[in-house]
Amino acid sequence: MNTPLRMADATSSVEIRVRGRVQGVGFRPTVWRIASRLSLDGDVLNDSQGVLIRVRGVASTIAALVEELRASPPPLAEITAIETRPCEGELESGFVIVDSETGAHARTEISPDAAMCSVCATETLDPFVRRFRYPFTNCTHCGPRLSIVGGVPYDRATTTMAPFPLCQACGAEYRDPADRRFHAEATACHVCGPAARLIRFDGRAFSFEQHSMLDDVDAALSLIQKGEIVAIKALGGYQLACDATRPEAVALLRQRKRRDAKPFALMARDLDVVRRYAMVSEAEAMALESREAPIVLLAATGPEDLPDEIAPGVKTLGFMLPSTPLHLLLLRRMGRPVVMTSGNLSDEPQLIDDVEAAAKLSAIAPFALTHNRDIANRIDDSLVRHMGGRLRVLRRARGYAPASIQLPPGFEPAPEILAYGAELKATFCLIKDGRAVLSQHQGDLEDALTYDDYRKNLVLYRGLFDHRPAALAADLHPEYLSAKLARATARSENLPLVEVQHHHAHAAACLAENGRPLNADPALAIVLDGLGYGSDGAIWGGEFLLADYRRFERLGTFKPVAMPGGAQAIREPWRNLHAHVTAEMGWPAFAMNFGELDLFAALTAKPLASVDAMIKASVNSPSASSCGRLFDAVAAALGICFDRQAYEGEAAARLEAMVSAGTLEEEGDALAYPLPIPNLQGSGLPYIEPLGMWNAVFGDLILKTPASVIAARFHKGLAKSIAAMALKLARRDEEDAPARFDTVALSGGCFHNKVLFEQVVSRLEKLDFVVLTHSRVPANDGGVAFGQAAIAAAHLIDAGRVRQKAS
């Protein structure tokens, strides 16, 4: 008796579209291996929309292929969608990988650069394989991506590897679907690939043999060990390296680079070296060894000390491990950390061009370890810190960008949007297909070279992602260069522009990162930073906003205080301190009660008459409700950066470093400095009033209380007041009325302060608030573009401007 053929066993042909980060990550060979094992017929190819699979077989077997792809994609892949539909046309027997196709509408993702995998590291150090000591070893699971790409599809011809034809051996690996280097576009070896070379920037003849019997890379290390500064052409730009244990070398690097005090990043060959100088938790070790390989901020509490010149005034060290074979080989016999900082003069973008590097770095480093592969795109090292039980991205760049972020439920119809971000720590953000692509850290746009690079990257990203915005988004600030560019582009391309208040963008970035749905109830956003242009034209910086993606209401703030000199007050903290003294208690009361302080003498030595006249006349002395400026003022009171900050946030960073852990953990709240919450005259807005805090600070200075105790009491008192403000604004105590909100979102650069962040989170959670925080997107201005994009998307969806789904 014949058994009838069941529908599930019928042979059919299906087209499977896979979207996401699926090119240049070994996706096609993974499909090939699974399909071949399942005896399916068909083919797989890359195109401008991702990966296209055409397959013939029984339905259950095709389903098994799809399920295995979902469950076990390649390590660097991220699938955002798998779509199936009937396949028209004949398919040959067997399963093959076919050449990539190009198309008009790119919908795939470019993978971030990934640190070398363990297999490639082993090969690089194995004297019995052909890539022994090859500085550019890589495979589909690791190596350069964004730093070498110039277009899509991501194939060798569109990268800076195009000038290097594959040798016979590499070509065989590249063409073999069973090999882990199948279509690994940066595949190369000693025979056919880029080569490292040690040179003198002055062009004089130089031979590595006088410093090493191995090769140029090892000779570069010998120079570092002898106290030299060496420029290194790395993955996303030039770096400057010297022996971190030599104070004279570090001081010389600071002098030549014009970097007065900002901490230097460090690189060590392994965790054992790092642990000699810093405390490393399990989570921090995982971050150091991850494929993103960021700089990790660690507590400098190891058994050995590094020179103070590495990180003046702070108690953290920024360590990273070798992320490329070149760095692995460079540090192979180095049992000490090296400074590994960006190759540039301070405040300028990292150099990527060989000719520019020779011109600008020769006065800093006489030697350079360079190579002949171009860097297509500049990418800084990423920076992370473990706070509140999670790893937090402080600077999102190499290893993270341009990986996309899924937008929350409700944003699916959003059209393509381009958000231009802030001016400091600038990034931009593209929305496409329900996902956000946040660019790598660009830097401060006030620098002309950085601004040029920012504009170049805008063009690059729009091309890579075939991005055709339906609208633009920008900061409300009339003078931000990013906003000016957005306005000019909106006019020239006849596009609508959504202008977004700075702190609302911070709030939306935190909400969106945490997946809060488009139509969710508003949350209280506590946004603490330096400065942002308020919707009333004033300068904000310590804000309590009831916010969703569409709108916000300002419920509370910090006390507005003048900034005498405007931007000069940011650079010179004594100005903020004087402004607080005069605003809170007045100079006569300060002189009468605290005139015996050294602080009083230090202030009287300043040109106070002209400063007071500026404040009185409201000339270049804008009023600012800034949490950042409050930190500057308290730091100045303790003698920290009193005259000048060498870099943005230095005073606050040093104040945080000064905090006594014992006081923080053991001393009761009764001694935390009081910051009550009265209402502003006129608006009636609740605000954090620092007068009681200042009397307590100055009183403790009279009593010779250690500065570490004062710093701890300030942090604790501020966190206590912030939590009290949230409770007050929630109106939980009102009878027969629901609480105004139950969720609090924290954003703004002040929350990169570990002490403040953990104190605030702990206190809010004890009050039974749901607390949303940043981890993948920086809390500082590096996340503003993401928030701008989400707000613009909400407005466009409400206006019926929605995207057309991809075919």
Walk me through this protein's architecture.
It is a single chain. The chain is α/β, with parallel strands linked by helices. It has four domains: 89 residues, 2-Layer Sandwich (Alpha-Beta Plaits), CATH 3.30.70; 188 residues, DHBP synthase (Alpha-Beta Complex), CATH 3.90.870.40; 181 residues, Nucleotidyltransferase, domain 5, CATH 3.30.420.360; 178 residues, Nucleotidyltransferase, domain 5 (2-Layer Sandwich), CATH 3.30.420. Helix content is 32%, strand content 19%. The chain has 25 helices and 29 strands. The strands form four sheets. It has a ten-stranded mixed sheet with strand order 6-13-7-8-12-9-11-10-14-15, sandwiched between helices. Strands 22, 23, 24, 25, 26, 27, 28 and 29 form an eight-stranded mixed sheet that branches. The protein has a six-stranded mixed sheet with strand order 16-19-18-17-20-21, sandwiched between helices. The two termini are 46 Å apart.
